[in-house]
Specification:
The protein is mainly β. The protein is 0% helix and 55% strand. The N and C termini lie far apart (40 Å).
């Protein structure tokens, strides 16, 4: 079974940094794009950043220049380095991948940014 285990969330002050990790199992990790989404309670889950199997990256405009997505294929791990955090970045962050048109979500990790 494909499993994605996210971690690294926490409470941080505005302007601070956090690094999220997502460890994958049950798939050939380096064959697939993988990304991060986030969701605020009562709102739609939104895409934050994505990295292809070849290392190309894509970011939502709201995080460009502040967040960096990366992957370590040897460790089967996805990262999201988040700098200059803002209160509006507060959300549950999920890692996600799609394999043969089926989506897989990690369990989510809560990021809270205080003002």
């Amino acid at each position: 079974d494909v499993q994605l285990q996210a971690s690294g969330g926490g409470l941080v002050q505005a302007g601070g940094s956090l690094r999220l990790s997502c460890v994958a199992s049950g798939l050939s990790f380096d064959d697939y794009a993988i990304g991060w989404f986030r969701q605020v309670s009562g709102k739609v889950r939104e895409a934050v950043a994505c990295i292809t199997k070849d290392g190309a990256t894509y970011y939502d405009d709201s995080v460009k220049g502040r967040f960096t997505i990366s992957r370590d294929n040897a460790r089967r791990t996805l990262y999201l380095q988040m700098n200059s955090l803002r209160p509006e970045d507060t959300a549950v962050y999920y890692c996600y991948t799609s394999i043969r048109e089926r989506g897989y979500w990690g369990q989510g990790t809560l990021v809270t940014v205080s003002s």
